[in-house]
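Task: sequence design from structure.
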């Protein structure tokens, strides 16, 4: 077994010679004896913790197939074509198939993760766009409702910058309040989902909790900027004229 297994389950004393009961491939309980401990080889769980592993002798526990990792130089196509010939020279009864470069194998294994990642990005982008359009529409409606007030402010000497800030101030306050409340609700939702769905990302990940509200506030501010600038450009006569 590997060192992470020993550290977690057999931390006290020498594990060599100890016996464990495990389930084999057919679900039958099987006693095994520990004959050695190997270091951690870099395999980790989804939570990025060292994976506990047990290695069984192939002669005692044969499998129908196994994976062979080959380090070689040169073109991957050439190496893949040579593997069956090299294997036949060692043992003609062993068949080699599905020879792939390691990066291609990893991409294939993570196809589902990539698909869901693209799906979540698309849904999140659509939600972000809808939020920006909704905020811009609400801001435009709010500016129209305050048209006469803003015109009177302009008639009394308010600068376009001052009028823009007056029209934009309400949206900024809503963005700040929404960011605080949304972040708190997001933390609770992440805790409810658990690491099995979040693939090891903690609910209080500082990068996510900082990036998401900042992006939303920037998008919201840009969406509200257009109507606010429109308010500053309304002619005074048109603004104070009765509807």
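Answer:
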């Amino acid at each position: 077994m590997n060192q992470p297994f020993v550290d977690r389950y057999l931390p006290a004393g020498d594990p060599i010679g100890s016996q464990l009961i495990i389930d084999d491939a057919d679900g039958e309980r099987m006693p095994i004896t520990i004959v050695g401990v190997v270091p951690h080889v870099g395999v980790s769980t989804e939570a990025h913790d060292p994976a506990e592993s047990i290695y069984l002798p192939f002669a005692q526990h044969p499998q129908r197939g196994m994976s062979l990792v080959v380090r070689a130089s040169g073109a991957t196509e050439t190496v893949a074509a040579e593997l069956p010939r090299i294997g036949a020279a060692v043992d003609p009864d062993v068949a080699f198939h599905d020879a792939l470069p390691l990066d291609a194998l990893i991409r294939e294994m993570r196809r589902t993760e990539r698909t869901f990642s693209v799906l979540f990005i698309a849904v999140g982008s659509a939600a972000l766009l809808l939020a920006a359009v909704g905020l811009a529409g609400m801001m435009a409606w709010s500016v129209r409702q305050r048209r006469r007030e803003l015109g009177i402010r302009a008639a009394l000497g308010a600068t376009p910058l001052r009028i823009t800030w007056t029209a934009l101030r309400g949206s900024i306050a809503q963005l700040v309040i929404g960011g605080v409340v949304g972040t708190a609700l997001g933390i609770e939702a992440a805790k409810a989902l658990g690491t099995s769905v979040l693939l090891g990302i903690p609910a209080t990940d500082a990068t996510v909790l900082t990036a998401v509200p900042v992006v939303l506030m920037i998008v919201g501010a840009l969406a509200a900027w257009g109507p606010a600038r429109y308010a500053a450009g309304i002619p005074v006569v048109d603004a104070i004229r009765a509807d």
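The mean pLDDT is 79.
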